[in-house]
Specification:
With 474 residues, this protein is an alpha+beta fold. It has four domains: 150 residues, no CATH class; 56 residues, no CATH class; 108 residues, no CATH class; 111 residues, no CATH class. The chain is 60% helix and 9% strand. The strands form three sheets. Strands 1, 2, 3, 4 and 6 form a five-stranded antiparallel β-sheet that branches. A four-stranded mixed β-sheet has the order 5-10-9-7. Strands 8-11 form a two-stranded antiparallel sheet. A hairpin with a 5-residue loop joins strand 3 and strand 4. Helix 1 packs antiparallel against helix 2 and helix 10 crosses helix 12. The longest helix has 32 residues. It is globular. The N and C termini lie far apart (53 Å).
Length: 474
């Protein structure tokens, strides 16, 4: 009965929405200053929203139908839930790829929430969302160029490879040579991004709110708020260009002792706009490619130390933090001015890419965050609680906050015999973490809803850095 009611409600909602949208769409096209773009929106957005509605309803129905009548905590329910998690993760993955853009970013974020999301979702998203993003056609790339610079790439550059070397959620990167022969990387925004951004945010919000309505403990509304705030900045490549220059200036002024060891590609401002970003091409190894790093004569452990030190400087001293340091955004090359040691080893230089997502931390936040990490290292329970409360975790959820930061349950967080900066990342530890996350799912959801968004992004940054460190050290 409940299932039939669910489907009837969904059908009524779809019919009403379709009728309203059809009438308003015709009026919008007729009065628009750009009828072609408006027509494109009015034909593509409903399809994307329909996919959202169908996917959300399908996932809800699958959980309700498949788990109906199975006792909580039973072996049978656990087996069935695993299968539903897998099916639902693949449905969400398919939706992200079909809609692209913001949805890819949503999938990437889910793939990093190992302390909250079932492992089936984490694994599915992590395996696909970083390396298999949709690619815009060369014709679409040319359209962006004509809109931004008035000419196609072949008229602006001496050479321009139509096949991108990388594609991400918001843009893709092409290799080119300027008229003076300099090799550059050209980041081109996917053509639909700006047009559909508002509708896509609404679509993601629809999915999250629908799932929360049926499953109150499944509360990801904080994630929607984060996307709503950060996306407009990430869509403006001039903001990204300014961020990259400010980042390097901070190292030169505030951290001169490691300024030579951190680098960002130079921006070609005359060939850059809000949707195009032309930068110096970097010939370097990806930070998690241990074999390539070793071939360069660099020790992976030295890279791990440099990554940790660079981001510690940003978090605790600069207050201006790169918040998307996954492996694809961090490159390594030998220090250009450095010489080999007696053993033939070379010093690393860390190259930071994709400067679209930065967060500023005020002095009090930096101080309290640093004090919290000091307390965690010393296993000082009183200080952990005090500083967690100051950062917004509250007196009731500070233990969970400490657990998320260290990826350990509370009894191990306050164990002075343990090294709290070491996380092995083995199967046993992952299994323990998933059990812990499942047991305290609703409390963790409440904690993430409660924390300031700047702290949420620090958690995401920590997760990315932890994954990079594990690839280099273990």
């Amino acid at each position: 009965m409940a299932t039939r009611s669910l489907w009837r409600s969904r059908a009524k909602l779809a019919i009403a929405a379709s009728a309203i949208f059809t009438g308003s769409a015709a009026a919008t096209i007729a009065t628009s200053e750009d009828p072609a773009t408006t027509l494109k929106l009015c034909t593509t957005v409903p399809v994307r929203l329909a996919r959202d509605t169908i996917t959300a309803a399908s996932i809800v129905f699958d959980y309700q139908y498949s788990l109906w009548g199975l006792p909580e905590g039973s072996v049978e329910r656990s087996k069935v839930k695993h299968k539903v998690h897998l099916r639902s993760a693949h449905k969400l993955q398919e939706l992200c790829f079909k809609n692209g853009g913001i949805y890819i970013k949503l999938g990437q974020h889910i793939g990093q929430l190992e302390y909250l999301v079932p492992q089936e979702y984490v694994q599915t998203m992590r395996e696909s969302m970083l390396n298999k993003c949709p690619v815009s056609s060369y014709d679409q790339v040319c359209e962006v160029f004509k809109q931004e610079l008035g000419e196609t790439p072949d008229k602006i550059f001496n050479e321009f490879d139509p096949v991108p070397i990388a594609s991400a959620s918001l843009a893709q990167v092409h290799v080119a040579r300027t008229t003076n022969g300099q090799k550059v990387a050209v980041k081109v925004q996917h053509i639909h991004m700006t047009d559909t951004a508002a509708a896509d945010r609404a679509g993601v919000e629809l999915i999250v709110n629908t799932l929360h309505w049926f499953f109150p403990s499944f509360d990801y509304r904080w994630l929607v708020a984060e996307i709503r705030e950060s996306l407009p900045k990430e869509l403006d490549f001039l903001v990204e260009a300014r961020n990259s220059e400010k980042c390097l200036e901070n190292f030169q002024k505030l951290s001169p002792h490691i300024a030579d060891y951190v680098y960002a590609p130079k921006v070609h401002w005359n060939l850059s706009t809000s949707k195009l970003l032309t930068m110096e091409f970097m010939d370097a190894a990806q930070v998690n490619d241990v074999k390539a790093i070793e071939r360069l004569g660099i020790q992976p452990t030295e890279v791990a130390k440099l990554v940790s030190q660079a981001f510690a400087e940003m978090m605790f001293k600069h207050g201006f933090v790169h918040c998307d340091p996954h492996a694809a955004n961090l490159l390594v090359r030998p220090l250009p001015s450095g010489k080999r040691s007696l053993l033939g080893k070379r010093k690393p230089q860390l190259i930071l890419l994709d400067h679209g997502l930065y967060k500023e931390l005020d002095f009090n936040t930096r101080y309290n965050y640093a004090s919290l990490w000091k307390a965690l290292i010393l296993a000082d329970a009183k200080s952990i609680k005090e500083n967690s409360v100051k950062l917004g975790a509250g007196e009731d959820l500070y233990a969970l906050f400490a657990g998320i930061l260290t990826m350990k349950p509370w009894n191990r967080v306050v164990d002075p015999a343990l090294d709290h900066l070491v996380i092995q990342g083995n199967d046993s530890e992952r299994s323990e973490l998933q059990m812990y996350a499942s047991q305290y799912f609703s409390q963790i959801s409440e904690l993430l809803r409660r924390l300031p968004r700047v702290i949420l992004l620090m958690l995401k940054t920590n997760d990315c850095l932890r994954a990079v460190n594990n690839s280099l050290v273990f």
